[in-house]
Amino acid sequence: MFLLMIFTYVVLLQFSKTTTAQQNPTLNYCTNYASSSTSYLQFQTNLNLLNSSLVSNGSVNGFFNASFDVRNPNSSVYGLVQCKGGISMGECRTCLQTAGENIIKQCANGKSAFIRYENCLFRYAGDNFFSQAKTSPINLMPGVDDASNVDVFSKNVEGLMNGLTANAASSASKFQFGLANDDTNSLDIYGLAQCTRDLSEKDCLSCLRRMTDTVYVSCRGKKGCQAICASCVVRYEVGEFFDTSLLPPFPPPPPTSSPPPNPTGGKSSMIVVKIVVPVAVGLVLLSAFFGYLSWRKLTNKGSNNSGNNNIESEKYSLQFALRTIRSATRDFADANKLGKGGFGVVYKGVLPNGQKVAVKRLSQSSGQGSEEFKNEVMLLHKLQHRNLVKLLGFCFEGQEKLLIYEFVPNGSLDKYLFDPTNKACLDWERRYNIIKGIARGMLYLHEESRLRIIHRDLKASNILLGDGMNSQISDFGMARLFGVDQTHQETKKVAGTFGYMAPEYVVNGMISMKSDVYSFGVLVLEILSGQQIINENREDSPKVLTSIAWEHWREGTASQFLDPCLSTGSSDEVIMKCLHIGLLCIQMNVEDRPTMASVMLMLDSDSLTLAIPSPPPFWESENLSVVRSGSATSN
């Protein structure tokens, strides 16, 4: 009984420490705003709507930023959340929930605020602060204990932290942690450096250096210290404060600006040796690797077209031999055929290691030449998201252009949605998850990936269904890259699928993110109704699904638009919300359509009041002939 009491006390004490750490922020900042103004009340409403989206998305990805109502500068709100690297999704969610609740309480009238806990950051403002470093105010938290040999200890701290800051700034995660040994003082020094992921390498490094400079001056000789601001944090401690099993195999490289080690320094010089030797070995291995790539490029030159060598050498690691793919697909046997798309046929294959793959074989008459092929390889190689199909590799030999994807077991959405038998598998919960998965994937393409990408061919046959019917966007052959500040682009060749293409694209060749939003809206209507966008066999008039949806919405008979397979009941409100969102996405006026960020907010929120949609384009039946006679290429 006595031992049980001791154990209970220890557990409660540890729980108390954890709870206190969560409840006490390491830094918070708030600016006041006139709470009586109408615009502020709208700002507060927008902030509350954004709050839940930041928590839910941030806990999944470890970082998330989004904006709301950006066209109204008086009530627009921008938000950003980030969790400390190396913590679990549960720890991340718990911290963000606490931060999201407390930032509203502690900054009730704030137009701009941020709050930092040990495990997370929560920040919002009425102005766009994304990709801008905020380095003040700074909270400096020095430790209590002093090291015995201050000069050696301080040199080891600086060597560790300079390496960590350089690596953190250059990494995509903007996070780095590591360990250095101070043998003179018989100590292990643990360090951490992290920026918010929206910062550039230059701005991140500048922010981290300002923090480390503060630490080096104000915490010299202290066994622990951290400097914190809104955009970055640095910390070192004698003692573990992160999961050491996640440590990289060798410490970060030394700073180029640090002085050479003192030959008489003895123990401290070992730190530099431990860092330099693995880096030197790494450089040798990298040189050998790139030498191998160059050799392979030369040896493949005779068998490939002249255009083959234009694909960057980095992609040779993804290249498959044609004979391997022929064997995997049994020489492209009809029995292995999975389907046919606009640019070619897709086959199922099994690699020598037993892995199942989907092979997209581009036809020579498909219209996707070498440029489109390279485009798809380059895009997919850089994109990583659970709602995007995963590219495993490619083959480009002779006249063959092949893309090798991870095999998605359940096929494409259209095989279920438009099949009278298979559609029964798609209950409302699955359809709703498919809608949200497509929205998450499109949001990643438009705003969250390192590239801004317009898909241009979003349709049911390009949505693959993985394990658990998780939706994955595929077929990037017609995708376009956009600059960060680019809003639209014109094209002379209009290509896509009738019904899914936005009117400004069909008529004027104008491409934008809102073109994809239109296609997404059409997809939502198809998922809700179980019907294709254009169906010549449909007995009712008009023939276009968008027009039918609008007619039911206008007449108050929206329930008649839904797929009879759907059992509604308690889901009625959510289903009607999705129909509402679909109609907002297909509005004629480009500016009236929401962004994918706004779509995700609407899907995640149970209290948001949606705008009233205006009529979609071509909803009058006679307009269908205008679309059908346009200069578009049907896939």
Give an account of the 3D structure:
The protein is α+β, with helices and mostly antiparallel strands and 635 residues long. The chain folds into 4 domains: 22-125, 2-Layer Sandwich (Killer Toxin P4, Chain A), CATH 3.30.430; 139-279, Gnk2 domain, C-X8-C-X2-C motif (Killer Toxin P4, Chain A, 2-Layer Sandwich), CATH 3.30.430; 308-406, Phosphorylase Kinase, domain 1 (2-Layer Sandwich), CATH 3.30.200.20; 414-634, Orthogonal Bundle (Transferase(Phosphotransferase), domain 1), CATH 1.10.510.10. It is built from 16 helices and 23 strands. It has helices spanning 2-23, 38-61, 89-106, 150-170, 201-218, 267-299, 322-328, 370-382, 414-417, 428-448, 503-508, 513-529, 545-555, 572-585, 596-604, 624-628, and strands spanning 27-32, 63-68, 77-83, 110-116, 120-125, 139-142, 175-182, 187-195, 224-228, 232-238, 337-340, 344-350, 356-362, 391-397, 400-406, 452-454, 463-465, 471-473, 480-482, 488-490, 494-496, 510-512, 632-634. The strands form 7 sheets. A 5-stranded antiparallel beta sheet has the order 1-4-5-3-2. α2 runs antiparallel to α3, α10 packs antiparallel against α12 (513-529) and α10 runs antiparallel to α15. The longest helix is centred in the middle third of the chain and has 33 residues, at 267-299. It is globular. The termini are far apart.
From the structure above, extract its key features.
transmembrane, 38% helix, glycoprotein, protein serine/threonine kinase activity, disordered C terminus, single chain, 23 strands, 635 residues, disordered N terminus, 4 domains, globular, Killer Toxin P4, Chain A
